[in-house]
Specification:
It is a single chain. The protein has 259 residues and is α/β, with parallel strands linked by helices. The chain is built from nine helices and nine strands. A seven-stranded parallel β-sheet has the order 3-2-1-4-7-8-9, with helices on both faces. Strands 5-6 form a two-stranded antiparallel sheet.
């Protein structure tokens, strides 16, 4: 799909990190972009800076997602591109023993479920709304739209304490082929990116020594990933009309250690 000012895109989690880099890359090609994000203050600021439209959105809520798509389409028209970057996680061992008391503590099920709802279900919720809208459009260069999801290297080599996050991101990887098959008759492509360790705002809060150590774990290039490298792959997935149902690791060849 050719990227230009005739196209509209939605980027969830688009106010920061990988999502914001994607917004900037799409805007650089002239694409009209709607930023979906829960943080209104930062979202409005980034929309103003990039020339995008901000729509406050909680991917955990059907009502919120429906309203966000309606608001975005009112301004930019029907999106032909959906990039799902909204997500998050926690770090809790499956079962652990308190070092001081010896008490055995289990991973709270509600916290495990929340991570799956945020990442896997939240991504699927946005896919269904966007795909339904794309299906009403005419073909454009033999296709109606493109969807790009964000998983994680943790989907296949999660570290200790990442049971919920690994399961959630593995769910995104696992549903990529199935959804691509479901939408193939409607000429809508679906791909997923599995990023490794990237230099995002969340990582910026870590001590420099920790970031240096994490970067040194990457075989080549020996550093953290840059968000614009993620955005570059998003653009290629949109442009390349033969790329469908693919999950691509973007991680400098890192394979995460147990901890």
């Amino acid at each position: 799909m050719k990227l230009d000012s005739t196209l509209s895109a939605v980027v969830t989690g688009g106010a920061s990190g990988l999502g914001l880099a994607t917004v900037k890359a799409l805007r650089a090609q002239g694409v009209k972009v709607a930023i979906f994000d829960l943080n209104q203050e930062i979202g409005e600021k980034m929309a103003k800076e990039t020339g995008a439209v901000f729509c406050q959105c909680d991917v955990l809520s059907d009502e919120s997602v429906d309203q966000a798509f309606a608001s975005a389409r009112e301004v930019n028209g029907q999106e032909r591109i959906l990039v799902c970057c909204a997500g998050g996680g926690n770090a809790i061992p499956t079962v652990r023993r308190d070092k001081k008391t010896g008490e055995i503590q289990m991973f709270p099920t509600d916290k495990f479920e929340w991570v799956l709802r945020l990442n896997t279900v939240g991504t699927f919720r946005c896919i269904t709304r966007s795909a339904a809208g794309m299906m009403a459009e005419d073909l454009l260069d033999e296709e109606r739209g493109v969807i790009v999801n964000t998983a994680s290297a943790a989907a296949t080599d999660g570290q200790m304490g990442q049971a919920a996050y690994s399961a959630a991101k593995a769910g995104i990887v696992g549903m990529t082929l199935t959804i691509a098959r479901d939408l193939s008759r409607e000429a809508i492509r679906v791909n997923t990116i599995q990023p490794g360790i990237f230099d995002t705002p969340a990582m910026a809060r870590a001590p420099q020594a920790m970031k240096d150590a994490l970067g040194a774990m990457v075989p080549h290039p020996r550093r953290l990933g840059h968000p614009d490298e993620f955005a570059s792959l998003v653009l290629e997935m949109v442009r390349n009309r033969y790329m469908n149902a693919e999950t691509i690791r973007l991680d400098g060849a890192i394979r995460m250690q147990p901890r």
